[in-house]
Amino acid sequence: MTTKTRRPITPAATATSWQSSAACRTADPELFFPVGKGPEAEHRTAQAKQVCATCPVQDDCRTWALETGQTAGIWGGTTEADRWDAGMLQTLRAERRSVERARPAFDRCLAAQDFIEERYAAGVSLRRIGRELGVGYDAVRRALRFFEEQAAAEQAAAAGMETAA
Ligand code: SF4
């Protein structure tokens, strides 16, 4: 007896914001979950990829599959093997490790926002500010950019409120 790994729903039926635009909304879910490696599975894989090729949310779907670690099925026009062969999974894992390593330094910068902004306004280099905080240059640079984006968003929100008043 063959044990089938089946996805009961198409990617379009997953609880994500892009699902309503998915090209596989009305497709046969079996296509996206071919079983085995024979000609029939290859045929189904090809058919599913054809549907994906017309899909306006292909990138969102593939990213979602990578981020949620979908180990089977066709997502965003890729099989698990495609995702692995193309180095997508390895890249994502490396990025995650990199983000995890960088997070404590970034958090330290967030907690020192006033200090960083004052030192930066005084003309102190990012490298030196980093040394003073015990973090790397990159963490200070990213934090400053974050502060600037935050300030811009607050200004835009305030301007919107004034216009509405
Ligand atoms: S890319 Fe393919 S699997 Fe993903 S939502 Fe579109 S049609 Fe469905």
Description:
This is Transcriptional regulator WhiB. Its cofactor is [4Fe-4S] cluster. It comes from Streptomyces fradiae ATCC 10745 = DSM 40063. The protein is mainly alpha-helical. The chain folds into two domains: 76 residues, no CATH class; 67 residues. Helices cover 61% and strands 0% of the residues. It has seven helices and no strands. The chain is elongated, with a radius of gyration of 23 Å. It starts with 38 loop residues before the first helix and ends with a helix. The relative contact order is 0.08. The N terminus is likely disordered.
Summarize the helices and strands and which ones pair or pack:
Blueprint: H1 39-53, H2 58-67, H3 80-85, H4 88-111, H5 113-121, H6 126-133, H7 137-164
Helix pairs in contact: 4-7, 6-7
Provide key terms for this protein.
disordered N terminus, Transcriptional regulator WhiB, mainly alpha, elongated, 165 residues, disulfide bond, 61% helix, 7 helices
